[in-house]
Structures are given as structure tokens and as C-alpha cells.
């Protein structure tokens, strides 16, 4: 069965530090998609990025970057020079589309606190 | 586009009462998802629809929960009778296919006393 693990329950950093949020996934399908979502204290869920299993290129968007490594089944998220506004719960998610049907599962989330 | 719309935003009810949560997905999206979020269990997928048809309801906790999607622009999640353990934030999300990002509504915070 598919599974998403975010081993870090909570992380605290001081503003301007870099921080990496880990995501490890399990799937039997060769075609799948990985996502990151942000849930700030206001409660809404905000989409950050989508990556398909055939594209292992790393992605950078401003202070955000993502490292996808199929060899270790990981899709880690790094925030460079963190800011207080980055404080939120971050969810990694997996969607499969293959022999085992279509499924979508979220990881348990990592709560990031960025202290001034 | 207005995004996914959920109503009500907050609901407080007493145990045993019927609760109906509503969702309007983004126009043109063919998938609609209902999630429940609690501190203990995190974000749980309850049920999802494709073109108004329920595809997977294995996450629905028990028979007290039911969901419908009578047309492409409206879905309901009903709890009857409600219990205190149903207290949670319920999110509705929609997407164009399951492999694309889901867009979430603001959620309904349900409190069952």
C-alpha cells in the first residue's frame, strides 16, 4: 500500500536559518505524483509543488527548493533563509495512477516554527 | 474563479443532531474530495467523486457519514446522528484528475457538544 512518511513532527528554527523538511514515500506504481502543501495558522491548505515520477530534476522557486530522489524514495523540501511567515504545517502527498488504482494520500505533516 | 467554496465555515451542534456540510468545487474540475482533519489523526481522506460518481468511500468512518454529489457544482457531507468525536475540520477539495494538484476550500470547523 502507498504510504507517505514525514518523520519530523515539529521543527523550530531561528529566522534566516535554512531548514529541510523530509518526505519519504512508498509505492508499487511506476507512475506517481508527489506534492507539497502548506497549512499556515489561518488553516487553509495551499498547494506548493507537484512532481511526477519521471522528472527527477530539482526545482527552485525563490527561497523554496525541492530535491526528488527516486533511489531513496524521497522528496525533500528546503526553505532557504527562513522567515517568520514560513511558520506552518507542511504536508507531503502522493498520488498514484497505475496498476493499483488511483489513490491519494497525505503524510502526517511537519510543523515548522520560525522564530524571530 | 472563486475557488472551492464551503459552507458553513463553523458549525456547533449537539450530539444526536444531523449535520450537513456543503461544497462547491471549482468549475471544470472533475474530481471532488472530502477530508477530515484532527490533531490525533491528521488529514484523512473520507471519500472522493469522479464526475459526480463516488469512487472510493473506504475512508468514511461509519454509516453515520454519507456524501452525495447530485451535480458537478455541488456536494454534501452529512453526519446523522452526530457525536462529539466527529468534531474536526472538514475540508472539501477539487482537482482536474487525481494526478493534478487539489485545490482546497477554507474548511468547516465542526464542534459537536
Q: Biggest interface between protein chains, with counts per chain?
A: A-B, 20 and 19 residues
Mean pLDDT across every amino acid position of chain B = 94
In quaternary terms, these chains amount to heterodimer
Low-pLDDT residue spans of chain A: none
Sequence of secondary-structure elements of chain B: EEEEEEEEEEE
Shape of chain B: globular
Largest sheet of chain A: 6 strands, mixed
Give the N-to-C terminal Cα separation of chain B: 36 Å
* Shape summary of chain A: globular
Supply Rg of chain B: 13 Å
Considering DSSP H and I runs of 4 or more, what fraction of the residues of chain B is helical? under 10%
Largest β-sheet summary of chain B: 7 strands, mixed
Q: Would you list the SSEs of chain A in sequence order as H and E?
A: EEEEEEEEEEEE
Structural class of chain A: mainly beta
Q: Span from first to last CA of chain A?
A: 41 Å
The helix tally of chain B amounts to 0
How much of the sequence lies in strands of chain A comes to over 45%
Give the radius of gyration of chain A.
Answer: 14 Å
- Tally of individual helices of chain A: 0
> What fraction of the residues of chain B are assigned to beta strands by DSSP?
over 45%
Total number of strands of chain B: 11
Structure report:
With 116 residues, chain A is mostly beta strands. Chain A has strands spanning 3-5, 10-14, 19-21, 24-26, 32-39, 46-52, 59-61, 64-69, 74-79, 88-98, 101-106, 110-115. In chain A, strands 2, 5, 6, 10, 11 and 12 form a 6-stranded mixed β-sheet that branches. Chain A has a 4-stranded antiparallel β-sheet with strand order 3-9-8-7, with no helix packed on it. In chain A, strands 1-4 form a two-stranded antiparallel ribbon. The model of chain A has no long low-confidence stretch (mean pLDDT 91). By secondary structure, chain B is mainly β. Chain B is built from no helices and 11 strands. Chain B has strands at 5-7, 10-13, 19-24, 31-38, 42-50, 53-56, 65-71, 74-79, 88-95, 103-104, 108-112. In chain B, strands 2, 4, 5, 6, 9, 10 and 11 form a 7-stranded mixed β-sheet that branches. A 4-stranded antiparallel β-sheet of chain B has the order 1-3-8-7, with no helix packed on it. Chains A and B meet through strand 5, strand 6, strand 10 and strand 11 of A and strand 5, strand 9 and strand 10 of B.
Amino acid at each position: 500500500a502507498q504510504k507517505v512518511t514525514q518523520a519530523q513532527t515539529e521543527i523550530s528554527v531561528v529566522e534566516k536559518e535554512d531548514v529541510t523538511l523530509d518526505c519519504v514515500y512508498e509505492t508499487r506504481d511506476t507512475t506517481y505524483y508527489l506534492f507539497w502543501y502548506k497549512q499556515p495558522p489561518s488553516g487553509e491548505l495551499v498547494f506548493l509543488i507537484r512532481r511526477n515520477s519521471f522528472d527527477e530534476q530539482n526545482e527552485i522557486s525563490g527561497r523554496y527548493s525541492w530535491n526528488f530522489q527516486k533511489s531513496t524514495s524521497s522528496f525533500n523540501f528546503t526553505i532557504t533563509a527562513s522567515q517568520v511567515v514560513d511558520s506552518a504545517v507542511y504536508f507531503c502527498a502522493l498520488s498514484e495512477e497505475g496498476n493499483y488504482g488511483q489513490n491519494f494520500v497525505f503524510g502526517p505533516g511537519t510543523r515548522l516554527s520560525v522564530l524571530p | 474563479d472563486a475557488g472551492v467554496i464551503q459552507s458553513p465555515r463553523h458549525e456547533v451542534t449537539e450530539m444526536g443532531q444531523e449535520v450537513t456540510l456543503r461544497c462547491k468545487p471549482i468549475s471544470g474540475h472533475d474530481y471532488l474530495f472530502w477530508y477530515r482533519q484532527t490533531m490525533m489523526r491528521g488529514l484523512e481522506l473520507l471519500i472522493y467523486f469522479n464526475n459526480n460518481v463516488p469512487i472510493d468511500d473506504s475512508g468514511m468512518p461509519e454509516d453515520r457519514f454519507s456524501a452525495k454529489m447530485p451535480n458537478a457544482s455541488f456536494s454534501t457531507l452529512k453526519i446523522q446522528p452526530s457525536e462529539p468525536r466527529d468534531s474536526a475540520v472538514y475540508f472539501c477539495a477539487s482537482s482536474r484528475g487525481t494526478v493534478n494538484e487539489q485545490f482546497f476550500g477554507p474548511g468547516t470547523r465542526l464542534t459537536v457538544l
